[in-house]
Design a protein that fits this description.
CATH class of the largest domain: Alpha Beta
Order of helices and strands: HHHEHEHEE
Radius of gyration: 27 Å
Shape: elongated
Number of helices: 5
Number of strands: 4
CATH superfamily of the largest domain: OmpA-like domain
Structural class: alpha+beta
Strand order of the largest sheet: 1-4-2-3
Helix content: 40-55%
Largest sheet: 4 strands, mixed
Number of domains: 2
CATH topology of the largest domain: 60s Ribosomal Protein L30, Chain: A
Distance between the termini: 62 Å
CATH architecture of the largest domain: 2-Layer Sandwich
């Protein structure tokens, strides 16, 4: 067989067939790599793949929610509500976290009196609720967030974050 005959045979093969074969070989190599390294943590591998493809981190699964309402306009003082009792009842699983999201309404009067900022008042409301539940939940399992304009309330969201290590 001469070189001209080889070149002639290659031109008859569709280019997509060669490309598909290359992709399949890379995929087989990836699975061989996974089987050869049994100590690779699934969560670490998933995070690395997500980061490599530029995807956002996986959002935690929300399990329960509660709302503390009744804040006075411009105030972060806790209204009479047993938020600690609810937290004690739902946080038995160490794989869960609580996101405390403080809010304000969109009125000009519902702002922090010292600074005139709705965001600071929302943070103060979230901090007040977080301080009320701090005895019942370890600090590493509480996240504080703000949403000015979401209403004069604090939303508590219990979410499942996965297995503990």
């Amino acid at each position: 067989m001469t070189i001209d005959q080889l070149m002639e045979d290659e031109s008859r093969r569709p280019i997509w067939l060669v490309t598909l074969a290359d992709v399949m070989m890379l995929l087989v190599g990836f699975f061989v790599f996974l089987q050869a390294n049994p100590k690779v943590d699934a969560a670490t591998l998933g995070n690395a793949l997500r980061e490599g493809f530029g995807l956002a981190a996986e959002a935690p699964i929300a399990l329960e929610a509660n709302v503390v309402q009744g804040f006075a306009t411009g105030s972060a003082a806790l209204p009479p509500y047993d938020v600690a009792g609810w937290v004690r009842a739902v946080t038995n699983d160490p794989r869960t976290t609580i996101r405390v999201t403080g809010g304000t309404d969109a009125t000009p009067a519902d702002v922090d009196p010292a600074t005139g900022s709705a965001a600071i008042l929302a943070a103060d409301r979230a901090r007040a609720v977080a301080a009320a539940i701090a005895r019942d939940v370890p600090p590493g399992r509480i996240a504080i967030d703000t949403r000015p304009g979401a209403g004069r309330a604090v939303q508590l969201t219990l979410s499942y974050d996965g297995e503990t290590r």
